[in-house]
Amino acid sequence: MNENNQMRDVFDAIADPTRRRLIHLLAEAEEKPLHELTAQFHMGRTAVSKHLTILKEAGLVHDRKVGRETRFRLNASPLREVQDWVAFYSKFWSTNMLRLNQLLEEEEE
Amino acid sequence: MSLTLSMDFRFTTSIEKLWSALTDSSKLAKWITENDFKPVVGHRFQFRHQPSEWWDGIVEGEVLIVDEPNRLSYTWATGDEKHTVTLTLQDLGDGKVNLHLEQTGFSNAQGLEGAKYGWGAWVGELEKLLEQ
Question: How many domains in chain B?
Answer without folding.
Answer: 1
